[in-house]
Structures are given as structure tokens and as C-alpha cells.
Amino acid sequence: MVLWAGRFKKEINQDVNAFNSSISFDARMYKHDIMGSKAHAKMLAKQGIIDEISLYEILKGLNEILLEIDNGTLLFDPNAEDIHMFIESELTKKYPVSGKKLHTARSRNDQVALDLRLYTRDEMNEIKMMLINLINVIISQASNHTTTIMCGYTHMQRAQPITFAHHLMAYAEMFYRDITRINDCFERMNVSPLGSGALATTTYPIDRMFVAKELEMKDITYNSLDGVSDRDYAIEFANDLALIMMHLSRLSEEIILWCSWEFKYIELDDAYATGSSIMPQKKNPDIAELVRGKSARVISHVSSLLTMMKGLPLAYNKDMQEDKEVLFDAIDQVKLCLPVFTDMLKTMKVNSKKMRDYAAKGFINATDCADYLVKQGKAFRDAYKTTGQLVAYCIEHDEVLETLSLDIYQSFDAVFEESIYEAIALETCVKNRQVDGGPSPQAVEKSIILMKEKVKAL
Ligand code: ARG
Questions:
Q1: pLDDT in tens, 59-73
Q2: Atom number in ligand 1 closest to CA 320
Q3: 3-state SS of the chain: helix, strand, coil percent to 5?
Q4: Which of 212, 256, 278, 447 has the lowest tally of Cβ within 10 angstroms?
């Protein structure tokens, strides 16, 4: 018989029980459920709502249950309605008198609201550590390539010279923002809803702040209807996860391009690539492709959560049970992707020569040619036009700006001098972009130092 047996004359229909049950997916919160119950029981005893012997037995029983689940001697009952009911009924089996007192002044509505916060809090910390590892790998790859010239793109068209370090560090910035976003979410979500009861608190003289302190939460929620029915933190965190996946997916896309035969900017380590069952020459970037693919499902989970919540009247509604599978899957996918992606990045080989050779072929120094004319006294728009004509001439005659003779340059504008070659050398173009945030080795080294400091301060 279920715990609410009193009101009902029949057992629940088996199909309905299976339909209603969430234990197959919320069992993963068992540690947090036990943690919350222990804090609740301590508070009940401190307030004189339960006696010390009951507290002793409840704590002992909950500790035993934790140990037994951990060591595999207690298996989750698939017929239990959810993890909360399961743990309470196991406790009651062990200590019938005391176990039945645990749920005093509590509802599963505030219990699940608490558990999900406690669970999410732990996952946030794990994911932050994974992001820090990823940033450190990006930093170490970037540090080796502050002078590796590479073509930078806009519209996927060759644009201006940058370095590989500069390109990689763009991703470090993104992943750093992802960590700070998780921190922001953590600050808002680390408050205790316990004591909200089913929806309208309780008449027992409970001490909500005591429970919050026990659980290292910085405050309590201040409206019981909101306390039980707020899932903003789950949506915010899912959104943070979607952003992480979007960033991983963008870098994946580049990695896939860079390992293509047409680019060959990088080579993935054999241990982080796969072959084809039919084409012997193939080496496929499956990890990057899968990460890009998985980003779709994590992004869609944010929309599932928002859509699930948007029509719910106050306070708790069973629809909210649907928050878990999508949030958990978003967490799981990110935790699957981050370590393997990080190792793939760590072990990839960079073909600096290829990058440099390709950078030389696409007029990516044209802006610098125009800037040269400006330094020789021309207005930028005139300089821009002359350089455009030079590029057109080069294309027609199968040349590049570096190979054009001075005579030809001067036939377009007499102010061109020998110094044009130095001005349009890709190394010069990069070196002279010393503005903070720019690609010069100096500027990128500064950004690396700053990033290291920011990561250390997290
Ligand atoms: N399994 C439920 C959930 O995940 C727990 C809360 C159920 N509350 C209730 N009154 N039925 O949302």
C-alpha cells in the first residue's frame, strides 16, 4: 500500500503507477534527498517538534540507506512513485515509529524543489571544473601559437591575418563567460524552499533558516507559492548548458573544417578520430561532429522547459515532474562532451606551415595596403579604391600583393615605395595590431595572462 493509503479504497492501477512514477529518473537525487531530510529532521528536533530519539533513529536510518544505495545492497524499487517516497518508506521499514515522523511539516512539493536545487548545485560545480580544464588546454595550445599566422575570416571569406592563438583564445573567452553565467545562476538558486510546504507553509514552528544554513544555502525563499513552483533556476542552468554546447559546436565546426583535406590546418590524434568501414583513407572527426549534433538536443531542452512552465498556474503542478529528464539529459550531454572534447583539443597537432602558406594566398593584407597609402598621405576612401584595383589586377594576372613589382604598384599610385613589401608582410600586419584584444603576439600574450588570472580567481 502506498503512503497515502488512508484516503483510497483501491490500489493504484499498475499502468497508472508506472505512468506516474518518476523513480526511474529522479533516483539520481537520492543523496540530495537524504541530505535535505537530515537537515529537516535536525530542525524538527531543535524546534521540539520531534524528540531526540526520533531524530537519532531518522539520522541513523538515513545514513544506512545512503550507504546501502552506495554499495548496491539497496536497489531502487521501480514501483515506488518517486525517490522521495522510496527513501521515506525504506526509513519507515527500518524505524517504523520514528520514520513516520520525518515528513512532519513538509510536503513533497517543497522537498522536490529543494532536492533539485541541491542536485543542480553539485552538477554546476562539476561542470565548472570541466570548463576550467578546457580553458587551460586552450591556453596551453594558444601559448604555442602566438606567432602562428593564420587567415581570419568574415562571411567565411578570407579577411585579415590573425594568429592561431588569437583564434583559439576567442573560445577561452566564451567558455570563461559560461563559467561566470553558471556562477550567477548559482547565486540566485542557492536558497532553500523547504518550509514552503505543499503551497502555504505550515502551522508548526519551523526554523527555515536553520535548514538553509545546514545545507550551506545562503537564504530561504520568501513566498511559499513561488518556493514550490519556481523552476527558473533549472531553465537558467539549462540555458547556460545550451550556451556551452553552442560554443562547443562552433569550435567543432571549425575543427571539422580544419581537418578536411582542403584545409589540413590540424591533425587529430588517432585516438580521437575514427576510420571508415569502407574507405581506407578516411580519418573522421566524429567527436567534433557528435558534439555539434548533441548541441541540438541540449538547446531544445531549454525550449521544453520553458514550454512546460509557461501555462502553469500557481503553485505545484505535476507537469513539473517533466523538468527532470530534460535538465538531467542537458547535464549528462555536457558532461559527456566536455572531457572528450578537451582531450581531443589537447592532443591535436597544428600544421603551422599550412596555415601560413594559405594565409599568403588570399589578399588578407589588402587593408594594410590601403593603410599604407593613408600613411603616405592619401584619404582612406581613395586608398581603398586603389587597393581594390590592385587586387583586381592581381587576380587577372595570377599574382598576389606580395609578388607584384614596384613598377606595377607605382603605375597605380606614384606614392608606393619599396617599403610597401614590409608593410604588407603578414607578420607586420599581425604585429602592428597591438590594440588590446587584437592578434599581435604581444596583445594575445597579454590576453592569455589575463585569462589565467581570471581562471585562478574563480
Ligand atoms: N515526483 C514529483 C516531481 O518530480 C515530486 C513531487 C510530487 N508532489 C505531489 N504532490 N505529487 O515533481
A1: 999 999 999 999 999
A2: 12
A3: 65, 5, 30
A4: 278
